[in-house]
Amino acid sequence: MELANRVSELTPSLTLAIDSKAKALRAEGVNIYSFGAGEPDFDTPEHIKAAAVEALGAGFTKYTPSSGIPELRAAISEKFKRDNGLDYKPSEIIVSNGAKQSCFNAILAVCGEGDEVIIPAPYWLSYPEMVRLAGAEPVIVQTTQENDWKMTAQQFEEAMSPRTKMIIINSPGNPTGTSGSGRAPRALVEVAADEEIIILSDEIYESLTYDGAEHVSVASITPEARDLTITVNGFSKAYAMTGWRIGYLGAPEPIAKAIDSLQSHSTSGPCSFAQKGALAAITGDQQCVADMREEFNIRREYIYERLSAIPNVTAVKPKGAFYILANISKLGMTSTNFADRLLSKANVAVVPGIAFGDDSVVRLSYATGLDVIKPGLDAFEEFCKTL
Ligand SMILES: Cc1ncc(COP(=O)(O)O)c(C=O)c1O
Asked: What's the gap in Å between 99 CA and the centre of ligand 1?
């Protein structure tokens, strides 16, 4: 059967390939130390679960408005004001099935045939695929470990063409772990504003910053930026709610309206009672977020110290999210080859950097307990010493 070009051209997910290999080994009884997880290992806090259960009990089980329930959009509008200094009216906020759908909606609404979208690498692997699915072309800009994985305004200008429609910025970043004003220095935002390039700012890891790094929303950097930026966020990472599938975006009204229309004809509004859980998350006590961040921080310190002590492996201490990139380029292997051999010889699962557009690194997630991280790093270190 002949399928549409748009699906046959999709890159198969390397993350899933490693994951299925790890699962197959586990099924054979092998103890695998997995650093592959893209989700917190914690359970969703009780008060959030209770709100969803209550909503179910009260029969809150019908379709909601496609842009989300009004009380959640109002609470998100408040949150943007309180935490990000951003003024988005509830009508400029669209709630979706995860930040992933928010990103996809934003790209579909803004980009099409003939457009180019600038993406700094290493990138979250769905961005280029989403851009291609929209019929546009990703333009990848390589950032470096030496420059803290940040794209400079000069690199941005060099990548620009008359066809540039959007730039995607992700800070705190997956897989880089950069944070602060992170990948969007003021100069870069000013260039985008001069050229009227839309900025998609994916801030899903906002609540996970360390060492005093302060998250800065791109839309708040200059007044012009607010009118050109689509700010994406969600509940998956901050509240350990990956399976609930609730994310959102704030965008200037015409873009928000277009996205509402797009969503109304594709998925409609997200799950009704999951939205009630999200409302409890965003309006409730935020201590649960601080507690999870503290635990991630302990693991981050540990994993960074251990990786830095391995000969010929280097890493930048991450300031955000729950990932660290280990540079393995001095070990003389591609990232896929390294990840493959590490899994079969040392039972350690990591994601090859080539999946994120950088073959010199592998990604380790510390969204897993120290009971896995410690022996996993012992095995990682032993393996590197054999090379
Ligand atoms: C950078 C980034 N953006 C968006 C998402 C999607 O999050 P959600 O679970 O809200 O769809 C992820 C998930 O891994 C991510 O790493």
From this structure: 6
Burial class (CB in 10 A: 0-12, 13-18, 19+), 58: exposed
Residue type, 35: F
**Rounded distance, CA 16 to CA 376, Å?**
20
Question: What values do phi and psi take at 95, rounded to 5?
Answer: -95, 135
Segment 151-187, tens digit of pLDDT: 888 999 999 999 999 999 999 999 999 876 555 678 8
Which of 204, 206, 231, 351 has most ligand 1 atoms within 8 Å of its beta carbon, as the pocket-test mutant? 204
Distance (Å) from CA 386 to ligand 1 centroid: 35
Q: Based on DSSP, count helices (H) and strands (E) in the chain, helices before strands.
A: 14, 13
Q: Is the CB of 277 under 6 A from ligand 1?
A: no
Q: Is 281 helix (H, G, I), strand (E, B) or coil?
A: helix
Count of Cβ atoms closer than 10 Å to residue 6 Cβ: 12
DSSP state string for 102-140: HHHHHHHHH--TT-EEEEEES--THHHHHHHHTT-EEEE
Q: Is the CB of 98 under 6 A from ligand 1?
A: yes
What's the pTM value of the predicted model, to 2 decimals?
0.96
* DSSP per-residue string spanning 201-216: EE-TTTT-B-TT----
Is residue 346 within 8 Å of 353, Cβ to Cβ?
Answer: no
Domains of the chain: 5-43+288-385 (3.90.1150.10), 46-283 (3.40.640.10)
For residue 146, pLDDT beyond 90 = no
In this model, does residue 344 exceed pLDDT 80?
yes
Q: How far apart are the CA of 384 and the centre of ligand 1, in A?
A: 31
The 10s digit of each residue's pLDDT in 241-253 is 999 999 999 999 9
Place of tokens 């759908």: 101
